[in-house]
Amino acid sequence: MSKGSETEALQVVEVLEDLEKAFSGMLKRLTAEDRHWFWLEGRRRHKAEILKVLELAAEDNRILAQLADDPAQVLNKFDLTTEEYAALASGDIRFIEEIVGELSEKQKTWLSCRLQQEKW
Predict the structure, then answer these.
(1) Global pTM?
(2) How many CB atoms lie within 10 A of CB 115?
(3) 18 & 64 share domain
(4) pLDDT tens digits, residue range 35-55?
């Protein structure tokens, strides 16, 4: 590594350390109400992501085929928790409905297909 590259790498590390300290300090100052708000926003975002997957699968046979063949190929493009990812990959309708509410038959298209495949 050249001298210039080493200097740039050290500067990047310093900036990242400063950002980490600032972010850590900010998180410590959050109130319970703030944390609850962030949690609710996260739930809303994940609900929207789950519904996007289900809507795409119901409307696009190519997406449905990709999900059937290799769920990771599709699901990795979405902001999902590990549990949400696993539920979508396995067709766990009950878990998904706990998060997003009752699904329409159209929204259940992928989940029903997955359950019929008997791929666990």
Answers:
(1) 0.63
(2) 15
(3) no
(4) 656 666 666 678 899 999 999
